[in-house]
Design brief:
This protein has five domains: 42-119, no CATH class; 208-285, no CATH class; 341-586, no CATH class; 615-717, no CATH class; 735-778, no CATH class. 33% of the residues lie in helices and 20% in strands. It is built from 23 helices and 26 strands. The strands form five sheets. Strands 8-16-17-20-19-18-21-22 form an eight-stranded mixed β-sheet, sandwiched between helices. A six-stranded mixed β-sheet has the order 1-2-6-5-4-3. Strands 9-13-12-11-10 form a five-stranded antiparallel β-sheet, covered by helices on one side. A hairpin with a 6-residue loop joins β3 and β4. α12 runs antiparallel to α13 (513-527). It is globular, with a radius of gyration of 31 Å. The model is unreliable at 1-35, 129-200 and 298-331 (pLDDT under 50). This is Protein FAR1-RELATED SEQUENCE. One of its GO terms (biological process) is regulation of DNA-templated transcription. It is found in: Nucleus.
Length: 782
């Protein structure tokens, strides 16, 4: 970069030109100032230029850089500043030392990015990291497509998940696709002739040589099987000159903390490429911090690595071998409706998100027949945290299927304590087979620490429903309202309007299962429709759509008779072009979360007027969010329009008939136990929505119950729902899941301190003082 002084300014601003047009290995580049000392006031055209500049400076100084935190504008959601940090910043990995070296660039009104904060001091030795990026690589030849043998187990899933939830720094967007070109091999089986070391399971040691990275991987996996642990492919490093791979790490599957099953194990083997083209073990740690299981088959399936294939996603070919290499047959690849151009865009986006959000999770489904990518799933830490709070009722929204589409984009959506939709994960669905949805639901469940929902709303297609019943066997399943309306319009079109009126009355006004079945059969007989195929089919599946059957299941207030509004609304749909997808996605997500923040603020700072003198109204105003309190308040006010008559009493048990004044047909039965204050109503509002109905409130008023029992105030509807889930789950949850939930909760609270604490110097001082005092109580300060 070259410096130019701008006249008319008190501070000199230096112009940094794009480093990609300079060769940092030439003397000309060194003399031009590329990688020169950074200082406050240094200017860049883009944030990417600043990142490239800091990478070159880091390579010359002797450390590695990575992308750190970014900050967004509260007005339009655009990125307003970025941090680039030393790779040893933080403590999430064993290799990190909490180094504080960084630069921060801020976007000015002119569109330029100016370096406004800097810290040059490191807390570790310099020079050891530069070798990862400055090694002179050998020319890389693209290998021919590789055939990989596998013994097929009919009971094992056909897809192998590539989980990239690790927080390690990834190399580059170009390498992202190549990291997924791995395929399953039969358990414990090595098929290449020259892998005698791998079969023997001999001890690895520094200086051990291999002909290829794949040979090293299979050796380490064979060694792991003998010792008793599982292996994951870890970090890789690339040359800054030609982007070829210079070193790779193979780690214990329990490395890191991003998943409840991981415990920060430091065991690994790193190999480095030599000038001769071979690979050598240059770093090694054999010590594990967990119990080992020698002799147990610990591999989910060996992975084959393509060192540097240039043939795209389809460069690895798989053939199935049955009965010891006999009966060879070429398997067919699955259909894929995701355009190939989407994968590099999304995978690059996922990796960039991981540098900002260590709880960001994504996974890719691989076609074992061709080695190509299929479906994608992703969820940031906020979505995973929201699932711990509001994942009891989930909508799997595939409204992209409504018509002709180009982007098969699907979302998992829950409903928060303000009854607002919250994102619980996103997916690109490659095809509509059962296998595709099985992989997707299993991956979502794994990302959410294995906590299944109580109820799911989804399309009635057999592939989706079969996958749901297999992955969430205990969940109540309900069909999407929009799809039911579409089916009704299509199949009831030739029927007279009288039938349609009675049909809807049967669905929406039947109070019990017995009443629904009776009215339905009368309707079918009246119009002679016993032979109608569609009516017969939907009646057989009535427990998934008929209101009388759904009332007893909790659905968090998701409306039964209304169409679900897509989470991203019209801004993001199946026709969104590739170049606009990520921008619209982030804008829509931020808009929804801003609405949630507003409701949080209103619930804590606004107080609705009381409409009665009942103590239960004051109790619920104090506990519930504004939205939920208004629903409760309406039920309480409406209870004054009902009459209550005791119809049965035996011991502590009583039964009441509650009917509306002036309307004999609107009546419900309420059962009450005076011993434990248990109460139930035939309308089943509490079972369905988690809020007491007007009928129970009428009985409570009659019996002078002045305060609602705690069992009838669900914590998910209260103002501080986000802080209560750990308390609610202390029983019946594993220690690993509990730790993951606590991490997400604390991370969410910390992010709010950062967001509001950096808005001004005064708020920063206040936030810092609060955290410092809290640190004293936690005894983290010695």
């Amino acid at each position: 970069s070259s410096a130019t002084e701008h006249s008319g300014f008190n501070t000199m601003v230096t112009k940094a030109y794009p480093l990609r047009i300079l060769n940092h290995n030439t003397e000309e580049h060194n003399n031009s100032g590329g990688g020169a000392e950074p200082y406050v006031g240094l200017e860049f055209d883009t944030a990417e230029e600043a990142r490239e500049y800091y990478n070159v400076y880091a390579a010359r100084t002797g450390f590695k850089a990575r992308t750190g935190q970014l900050y967004r504008s509260r007005t339009d959601g655009t990125v307003s500043s970025r941090r680039f940090v030393c790779s040893k910043e933080g403590f999430q990995l064993n290799s990190r030392t909490g180094c504080t070296a960084f630069i921060r660039v801020q976007r000015r009104d002119t569109g330029k990015w100016v370096l406004d904060q800097i810290q040059k001091e490191h807390n570790h030795e310099l020079g050891g990291e530069a070798e990862e990026t400055t090694t002179t690589p050998r020319p890389v030849r693209a290998p021919a497509p590789t055939k990989l043998a596998t013994t097929v187990n009919q009971h094992r899933p056909k897809m192998k998940v590539v989980d990239e939830s690790d927080r390690e720094q990834r190399s580059s967007s170009k390498s992202s696709l190549k990291r997924f070109k791995s395929c399953s091999v039969g358990e414990g089986e090595v098929s290449n002739d020259h892998h005698s070391k791998a079969v023997s399971g001999s001890e690895p040691y520094a200086g051990l040589e291999f002909a290829s990275a794949n040979e090293a991987c299979q050796f380490y996996q064979a060694y792991a099987e003998v010792v008793g642990f599982r292996v994951r492919i870890g970090q890789l490093f690339r040359s800054k000159v030609d982007n070829s791979i210079t070193s790779r790490r193979f780690v214990c599957s329990r490395e890191g903390f991003q998943h409840p099953s991981r415990m920060g194990c430091g065991a690994y083997m790193r190999i480095k490429r030599q000038d001769s083209g071979g690979w050598i073990v240059d770093r090694l740690n054999k010590d594990h911090n967990h119990d080992l299981e020698p002799g147990k088959n610990n591999q989910d399936g060996l992975k084959k690595i393509t060192d540097d294939v240039t043939g795209g996603l389809d460069s690895v070919e798989l053939i199935e071998l049955n009965n010891n290499n006999k009966h060879i047959k070429k398997a067919r690849s699955r259909e894929n409706r995701i355009g190939k151009e989407w994968y590099p865009l999304l995978l690059d986006y996922f990796q960039s998100k991981q540098t900002e959000d260590m709880g960001f999770f994504y996974a890719v489904e691989l076609d074992v027949h061709s080695g190509s990518c299929l479906s994608l799933f992703w969820a940031d830490s906020r979505a995973r945290f929201a699932c711990s709070q509001f994942g009891d009722a989930v909508v799997f929204d595939t409204s992209y299927r409504k018509g002709s589409y180009s982007v098969p984009f699907a979302t998992f959506v829950g409903f928060n304590h303000h009854r607002q939709p919250v994102l619980l994960g996103c997916a690109m669905v490659a095809d509509e087979s059962k296998d595709s949805f099985l992989w997707l639901f299993q991956t979502w469940l794994r990302a959410m620490s294995g906590r299944p929902p109580r109820s799911v709303v989804a399309d009635q297609d057999s592939s989706i429903q079969q996958a749901l019943s297999q992955v969430f066997p205990g969940a109540h399943r309900r069909y999407s309202a929009w799809q039911m309306r579409e089916k009704e319009r299509e199949n009831l079109r030739p029927f007279p309007s009288e039938f349609k009126y009675e049909y809807e009355k049967c669905i929406y006004q039947s109070q019990t299962v017995v009443e629904f079945d009776s009215v339905w059969n009368s309707l079918i007989n009246k119009y002679g429709l016993r032979d109608d195929v569609w009516l017969r089919e939907i009646y057989e599946r009535r427990e998934h759509w008929a209101h009388a059957y759904l009332r007893a299941s909790f659905f968090a207030g998701i409306p039964i008779n209304g169409a679900f509004e897509p989470f991203f609304g019209p801004s993001l749909d199946a026709l969104t072009p590739l170049r606009e997808f990520i921008g619209r996605y982030e804008q829509g997500l931020e808009q929804r979360r801003e609405e949630e923040r507003k409701e949080d603020f209103n619930s804590y700072n606004l107080q609705p007027f009381l409409q009665t003198k009942e103590p239960v109204e004051e109790q619920c105003r104090r506990l519930y969010t504004l939205t939920v309190f208004r629903i409760f308040q309406n039920e309480l006010v409406q209870s004054y329009s009902y009459l209550c008559l005791k119809t049965y009493e035996e011991g502590a048990m009583s039964r009441f008939l509650v009917r509306k004044c002036g309307n004999e047909s609107e009546k419900h039965a309420v059962t009450f136990n005076a011993t434990n204050l248990n109460s139930s109503c035939s309308c089943q509002m509490f079972e369905h929505e988690g809020l007491l109905c007007r009928h129970v409130l009428k009985v409570f008023n009659l019996l002078e119950v002045k305060e609602l029992p705690s069992k009838y105030i669900l914590h998910r509807w209260t103002k501080n729902a986000e802080f209560g889930f750990v308390r609610d789950m202390e029983s019946g949850v594993s220690s690993q899941d509990l730790k993951a939930l606590m991490v997400w909760s604390l991370r969410e609270a910390a992010s709010k301190y950062i967001e509001f604490g950096t808005s001004s110097l005064e708020k920063y001082k206040l936030a810092y003082e609060i955290m410092r005092e809290g640190g004293k109580k936690l005894c983290w300060q010695r």
